[in-house]
């Protein structure tokens, strides 16, 4: 596959001194990069969604660790770590639900604590490796996931799981890229993804950069399309996958999955093993991020609704393992995931 021609967008550019983040709050109308020169800058970019998507915030967090350590002088990694420990806590907790952020910062911590005199350059290399491994995993998953689809599949995706949300290529969107390139996918629907509009603002734009046309629908249209026999598979990413196969992903994923089950439509979850958290037993144990009510009442800074006395804005939901037909990671495809199958593939992984 000629990856370069079907995967052009890059959200995170490390130039050896600072991290350039494509500001996803401004897309699709403006393409501007923010220069993050400190771990605090990176944490703020993650918190405010300038960079978003589980793998992307993990990678940004890893570079945040590098930035935290730039002004530290220490003879070995363990000593450097002591200087930046509190800053790493700040980074790790910038958002709560996607486990990739915590995983990446913890991997950086563990690596740093074992480094000797050359810890500074080795720490940078570790962040670069995390980014490169993510891209490689996505390309593998793209192929594996596309092979599970019927020929001529019409697919629905939710949120943005593409290059913008990862090191490149994407997870669910990687399967869609690979499936379109191989001719297996005939039609792509993208749901707008209220309230932040990751689908309409990001997914549709990103696919267009690579010449893939997606048909935009409102989130609540998916059951109707399935009832009409217009969708063969729902393909989504994940922010955390538990030991029993339950999946936390963007709010609305569960509704798409329930509708899919009612209409015999396949549900595919695509995520790298860095999203698997074997230390979280089931979905009920995951902290679901709550964001500001203005995400509901305002669009692009303009008020669109009456003042509400109370607003509830959980931005992720839990899709039970029982709703999932295919769980695709770079380690392979698990059909109908459950605790036993998860343990077989991921027993060596833990988020701690
Ligand atoms: O709030 P966001 O935009 O960070 O949520 C992103 C999602 O829910 C994605 O589906 C998930 O992180 C997978 S991205 C490859």
Could you give a short description of this structure?
This protein has helices at 3-6, 39-47, 54-69, 77-92, 99-113, 119-147, 172-181, 198-209, 222-227, 253-262, 294-297, 339-346, and strands spanning 12-14, 19-22, 33-36, 153-157, 185-191, 215-217, 233-236, 240-242, 247-250, 266-270, 276-277, 298-299, 302-303, 316-319, 326-329, 332-335. The protein is an alpha/beta fold. The chain has two domains: 3-138, translation initiation factor eif-2b, domain 1 (Four Helix Bundle (Hemerythrin (Met), subunit A), Up-down Bundle); 139-351, Rossmann fold (3-Layer(aba) Sandwich), CATH 3.40.50.10470.
Structure description:
The protein has 352 residues and is of the alpha/beta class. The chain has helices at 3-6, 39-47, 54-69, 77-92, 99-113, 119-147, 172-181, 198-209, 222-227, 253-262, 294-297, 339-346, and strands at 12-14, 19-22, 33-36, 153-157, 185-191, 215-217, 233-236, 240-242, 247-250, 266-270, 276-277, 298-299, 302-303, 316-319, 326-329, 332-335. It has two domains: 3-138, translation initiation factor eif-2b, domain 1 (Four Helix Bundle (Hemerythrin (Met), subunit A), Up-down Bundle); 139-351, Rossmann fold (3-Layer(aba) Sandwich). A hairpin with a 2-residue loop joins strand 15 (326-329) and strand 16. Helix 2 runs parallel beside helix 4 (77-92), helix 3 packs antiparallel against helix 6 (119-147) and helix 5 (99-113) runs antiparallel to helix 6 (119-147). The longest helix has 29 residues, at 119-147. It binds 5-S-methyl-1-O-phosphono-5-thio-D-ribulose (MRU). The site of 5-S-methyl-1-O-phosphono-5-thio-D-ribulose (MRU) has 17 residues, from helix 3 and strand 9.
């Amino acid at each position: 596959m000629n990856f370069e021609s079907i995967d052009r967008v890059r959200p995170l550019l490390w130039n050896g001194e600072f991290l350039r983040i494509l500001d996803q709050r401004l897309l699709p109308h403006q393409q501007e990069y923010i220069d993050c020169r400190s771990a605090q800058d990176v944490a703020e970019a993650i918190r405010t969604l300038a960079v978003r998507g589980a793998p992307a915030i993990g990678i940004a967090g890893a570079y945040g660790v590098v930035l935290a350590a730039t002004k530290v002088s220490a003879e070995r990694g363990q000593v450097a770590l002591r200087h930046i420990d509190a800053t790493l806590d700040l980074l790790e907790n910038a958002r709560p639900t996607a486990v990739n952020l915590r995983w990446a910062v913890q991997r950086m911590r563990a690596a740093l604590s074992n480094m000797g005199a050359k810890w500074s350059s080795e720490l940078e290399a570790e962040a670069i490796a995390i980014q490169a491994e993510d891209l490689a995993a996505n390309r593998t998953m793209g192929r594996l996931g596309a092979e599970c689809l019927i020929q001529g599949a019409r697919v629905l995706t939710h949120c943005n799981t593409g290059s913008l949300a990862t090191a490149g290529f994407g997870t669910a969107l990687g399967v869609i890229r690979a499936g379109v390139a191989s001719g297996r996918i005939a039609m792509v629907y993208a749901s707008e993804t209220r309230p932040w509009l990751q689908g309409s603002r990001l997914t549709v734009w990103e696919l267009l950069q690579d010449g893939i046309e997606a048909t935009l629908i409102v989130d609540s249209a998916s059951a109707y399309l399935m009832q009409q026999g217009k969708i063969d598979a729902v393909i989504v990413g994940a922010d955390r996958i538990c030991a029993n196969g339950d999946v936390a992903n963007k709010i609305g994923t569960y509704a798409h999955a329930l509708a899919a089950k009612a209409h015999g439509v396949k549900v595919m979850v695509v995520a790298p093993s860095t999203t698997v958290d074997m230390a979280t037993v089931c979905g009920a144990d995951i902290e679901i991020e709550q964001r500001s009510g203005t995400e509901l009442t305002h669009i692009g800074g303009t008020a669109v609704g009456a003042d509400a006395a109370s607003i509830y804005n959980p931005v992720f939901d839990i899709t039970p393992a029982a709703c999932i037909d295919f769980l695709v990671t770079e380690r392979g495809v698990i059909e109908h995931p459950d605790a036993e199958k998860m343990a077989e593939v991921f027993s060596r992984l833990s988020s701690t």
